[in-house]
Structure formats: structure tokens, C-alpha cells
Amino acid sequence: MPNPWLALDLGTDPAERISQVGRAHELFVTGETPVDQVRSVVADSWRRSAGALLSPDSRAPIELSDGELEAYRAAHPLARVLPMFRDLLGGLADDGDHLMAVCDAHGRLLWVEGHASAMRSAESMNFVPGARWDEAHAGTNAPGTALAVDHPLQIFATEHFSRGVQRWTCAAAPIHDPATGALLGAIDVTGGDHLANPHSLALVRATALAAEAYLGTRLRPAPDTTTVSVLGREDAVVAVGGRRLRLGRRHSELLCLLLVHPGGRTGDQLGFDLYADDQNPVTVRAELSRLRRILGPSLLDSRPYRLRGEVSADFLEVTRLLEQGRPGEALAAYPGPLLPSSDAPGVVRLRRLLDSRLRTAILAAGDHRLIQTWLATAWGADDLQMWEVYAAALPAASPARLLAAERISELTADYGLATFVQRARH
Known about the structure:
The chain has helices at residues 14-29, 40-52, 66-75, 82-93, 116-123, 135-138, 142-149, 198-218, 249-259, 267-275, 281-295, 314-323, 327-332, 345-365, 368-375, 384-392, 399-415, 421-425, and strands at residues 99-104, 109-114, 153-156, 169-176, 183-191, 226-229, 237-240, 243-246, 300-301, 306-307, 311-313. The chain has 426 residues and is an alpha+beta fold. It has 2 domains: 14-218, Beta-Lactamase; 221-353, Winged helix-like DNA-binding domain superfamily/Winged helix DNA-binding domain (Arc Repressor Mutant, subunit A). A 5-stranded antiparallel sheet has the order 2-1-5-4-3, sandwiched between helices. The chain has a 4-stranded mixed sheet with strand order 8-7-6-11. The protein has a two-stranded antiparallel sheet with strand order 9-10. Strand 1 and strand 2 form a beta hairpin. Helix 4 (82-93) runs antiparallel to helix 8 and helix 16 (384-392) packs antiparallel against helix 17. The radius of gyration is 24 Å and the shape is globular.
């Protein structure tokens, strides 16, 4: 079976493939939705891109510049592995035909390096430091799509959604925080059609793995630092004292409840949040005792029960970003609902509150790209109101609006509601 992440199968004529995919692209952007002639990863990316961009001639915007860019990338974890990137990929970047690029988890290019002639050519499409190259802002491309699907891949010539990028071919791989698994960004090599071979993909993947291994020895939390990850997870993952722990369900729920009540909670209060009227004080105390043994006595206090020291959590970071009026960054930091399978009343309230705040902030921002990102997630795919707002913001005859209308029709039928399709089509 062919590798779906490679752009060309063995023996494929590159020129013929460019022409074939180019015809499929033009049909797609003019309203023909079938994309049987392209890889599924590319077809899915085209659909996401069509929903986010007003035109296939759009260019990536510049989001960071001058001093702001310098300060941001100097503090970014990937700055620590930049010498490794240069060592492993610098030979390609110096030969005049290739560029090496590093982006953050939002798709913002932090470094773009290569021969001066290649750099000048890339400037015409805004492939420059500070530009945002996630799919929502630049369409299908290797670093942006690698972030979207969280997998190394190649994007070949006319597979790019934006026409101005279609003379390039690129290979990219995502890079993760070794402690938390969170995306840090991606490493990319961009150049000519000859990059569409297994070696370029293997090279960027090996470079990403080497970077993660190196960061694993440099990004370990200090002994007195505790971080908690519960978004999009069935169980909490805790990094404490140089250890990485995965808690069971009840302990995960207790930890979340303690995090949102830094002043502390009594056993009865925690019992009510866990079990409502079916609480058993003895069971709650026993679970807290076990949690203290797991985390260590220096972290969990009693009378009242509360966490000691500095403890950060991913859901509290999303809350902070929302309070600061930064919905785009909040959405980027949100990998999914908080402990989605938990039925503990206190956790259910917390999960619904966070989801509601994020969703409301996205709607209030009025940015169709944020809405499109929400709709592309597993938890947002069935959000009828968001689909209606999204469709209303798109040009009347665009392929994206027609696709949105079809989805609205499906959801209104499922929900037994009056259809929005006629309004969406006009």
C-alpha cells in the first residue's frame, strides 16, 4: 500500500502529476467538490482551507515583526534546537534550491533560512519570519498541514491550496514537548519538485525526533514545578518533581476541583462535587489519601484540602487567555474538552463553563477562520449555530458556503429543525 504521507508513488511522472492535481484543484476552487485525483490528506486540507480563506489567491499574513518577533522567538523552546536544525538541514538550505523553516504551534514562521536567491523568491509569497502559515491563513502547505494532522508529510506543487505557492514542494514534521506531548511547532524543508521523495520526508522526521529527544533533557520541569494537563484527555497527566504521572479517573477529577479552588475545599464539598447527594465521606477521604501518596505530601495539604506551591494547568491557561481577550490563542491552546468522560457534577460544570466561554468568545470575535477551526474539531463538528454563523460570513457562491450548507442540512435533519439551506445558498 502506498505511503499516504508521501507526495509521489514510485515511478510517477512529476510533470504529469502536477498537471493532474492542478486540474483537480481548479475544479475544486470553482465549485466542483469531488477531489478523487488527490491524496485524502490533501483533499481534507483543501476543504479546511476553502472554509478558512476567501480566495485561493490569498497570501499568508505577517503577524510578528521586528522587536516583537525577536523577543518571541528568543523565548520559544525551539530556539534551543535551532543549532541542531542548522546542523542537520543546513546543507540543504545552503545549496541555493532549498529553504529551512521553523514555525510555532500556531503556524507562525520563526526562522526561514537558505540561500539569498531562494529567500528572495520566498518573499513573494510571504514565506518569511513572522508570517502565519497554518492552514487557516495560508491554505494547504507542509508545515501548516503537518500541524493540522499532527504527522510528518509532503505537499507537492499543485497540492498547495494557494496558487501562489504551487511552484514549491515542501516536507515538514511536527515537534512536541516531550513532557506534555503538546505541539511546539514544526520543522520544514521547502524547495523544488525534486523534494517529493522518501528521503526528504525521512530527513525532516528524523530531525523532529532528534529535537524532541534533545528537548527531553532540557525542558524537564524544575523539582518545585508542577504542571497538569486535562484538556482532551480521559485522565490527568501531571509533571511533578521531574516525574510524569498519569492519574486515575477519580484522582483526575479531584485534582481539577482543587485547581479551581486554590483557597481549599472541605471533604464534604469535594464529595458533593464528585458524587452530588450520593457522596460517602469515607470514600472521599480515602481517595484524597491515595492522591497525596501519589503526588507527594508536599503538594497536597488538608484542613482544608488544597494544593501547595505553584501548580499550572492547561485549562487554567485557556481561561487566562480568554480573560485577556485572546480567543485565537485560547482556541489554539485547547486540544479538547476537560476530562470529557467524567460525570462528576463539579467537573461537568467546569467543563461546560469553559466550553461555553470559549465558544462565546469565538462567536464574538467574528473571525470566520476561528469558527472554521472550531468546526473542524471533533467536539465542534455538530455545532449547528456555529455552522450557520460561519455560512453567513462566506461569499454566496463560494465552494465553502455550499459545503457548509450541506452540513447544515444534515444537522437540521438530525435535530429535526427547520433547514437553513435555502438561506445559505442565497
